[in-house]
Amino acid sequence: LRSGVLNVQNVLKHNVKLGLGTDVAGGYSASMLDAIRKTMMASNSLQINKINETGLTLEETFRLATLGGSQALGLDDVVGNFEVGKEFDALLINTKASDSPFDLFSADNFEDTLQKFLYLGDDRNISEVYVAGKQVVPFSSSV
């Protein structure tokens, strides 16, 4: 049965280095959040169609979007997570932004909050962006 959807779980079983990314030339969004969401939908469709017993977890998909991409590019010794000695590439997320597209509740734990951001969040929740340890958003006036 061919579904036209990459079976990520099958690829990972064969120890293939795999990362999640964006390609505007081959798609319509440069958003990693969109890529994460679409990966979850594709994985769920493989599960619904009984191609896989289970779908990818959000944790597995997040890993593909972070460390997985750096491993696929052979850069996992430089970027991909927050290990000491690696370049600091990070987003500062404001889950309580006044115009946030999602609500938080007192019972929400870290995993709930991360899940809400990954499924519902957008640029309104991103307060700061760091690339190689330098803050690039908001843009510094001392450039």
Describe this structure in words.
- The model has no long low-confidence stretch (mean pLDDT 93).
- Helix content is 34%, strand content 10%.
- A hairpin with a 2-residue loop joins β2 and β3.
- α2 (32-48) crosses α3 (58-72).
- It is built from 4 helices and 3 strands, in the order αααβαββ.
- With 143 residues, it is of the alpha+beta class.
- The protein has a 3-stranded antiparallel β-sheet with strand order 1-2-3, with no helix packed on it.
Low-confidence parts, pLDDT < 50 over ≥5 residues?
none
The rough form would be described as globular
What characterizes the major β-sheet? 3 strands, antiparallel
Strand content: 5-15%
Order of helices and strands: HHHEHEE
Radius of gyration, in Å, reads 17 Å
For this structure, the quaternary state is single chain
How are the strands ordered across the major sheet? 1-2-3
Summed up, the helix count is 4
- Roughly what percent helix? 25-40%
Indicate the structural class. alpha+beta
Give the tally of β-strands: 3
Mean pLDDT: 93
Distance between the terminal alpha carbons, to the nearest Å? 54 Å
